Description:
32% of the residues lie in helices and 25% in strands. By secondary structure, it is α/β, with parallel strands linked by helices. The protein has two domains: 3-269, Spore Coat Polysaccharide Biosynthesis Protein SpsA, Chain A, CATH 3.90.550.10; 274-341, no CATH class. The strands form four sheets. The protein has a five-stranded mixed barrel with strand order 6-9-7-8-10. The protein has a four-stranded mixed beta sheet with strand order 12-14-16-17, with no helix packed on it. Helix 8 (221-230) runs antiparallel to helix 9. The longest helix is centred in the middle third of the chain and has 18 residues, at 121-138. The protein is globular, with a radius of gyration of 21 Å.
Amino acid sequence: MNRYAIIMAGGSGERFFPLSRQQRPKQLLPLLGNGKTLIEHAVERCLQVLPAEHILIITSASLQQAIADVLHPQIPPSNIIAEPAKRNTAGCLTLGAALISTRDQNATVAALPADHYIGDTDRFAAALSAAFDVAQSHGLIVTFGIQPTRPETGYGYIELGEPLGEGFYRVRSFREKPDRATAEEFLASGSFRWNSGMFVYRLDVFTAQLAEHAPPFGSALAPLRQALERGDHDALSRCFGDLPNVSIDYALMERTPAIAVFAATFDWDDLGSWDALARIAHPDMQGNVRIGTTVALDCTGTTLANYADSSRLLCGLGLENLVAVVTDDVILVCPQDRVQHVRQIVEYLRSHGMDRWL
Length: 358
């Protein structure tokens, strides 16, 4: 089998502060309430389609051992790779391409984030298999577009182009995160899908497109591969550190014509911030989400999340559209419509020397 997966697991998940921290970010949290971390769920989804030895995890050096511990014994330690520096998803997937090229020049690769929610894993597995088939046979990069259910301003969008059959389309355009009015237009048109950040591509197609449309990344492939083959960490660090710190969407996907989108029908959420819990959990009749030991009286549209290990009780009275999160050392309270800005608190703590809470 020439099919592989790269699970991108280097993110910091700052909008899930204070539960998500530097040493235990979002992908290492059991956010779905069943005791399994998000990265364990990501690996389990891949295992429906791929053997464990073909699943690679790319993360930061500070998280490499923690992820290896969580995924032991399913994923071989040699498949958990530490990036020498933070270089966003373009750097991550360039490193992944160089690594896979040392193992299988004829590979087809799925690039998947570690921290997404996918409700129907069987439907996802079928979609992933179909995307592998199309990527292999058509020489296209395939991305997954999610059917919008609300005028979401926190996601990028993909405009559907010419149909290719079986739920696949050419990509007419990528759109940045819109304002509310534009998001409502996208939703009403029926021609747009949420950009999920998941891709499937033949390795030779991906590397050729990098060379043509993202030269800083394309030209880094050979030296990265050589450094990996020699085990030369210094050369790897120098080459990787010279890469621009940009997303794969900006570096390549918005520029290449060799791209298609699959109109996915599985339940999906990128779990970007605290408001996601209301979409994947089970709110009560008043729209409240309660996690841990909590009491909610006369509250509506409120999330009360108590993750403290102690015997603390979290109570809410007469609250509307608020989020309250308690951990052992931090309490966060903010309006629901400000959860996308929680990383501002993280930035404040970092800039004011308050790293003990990060």
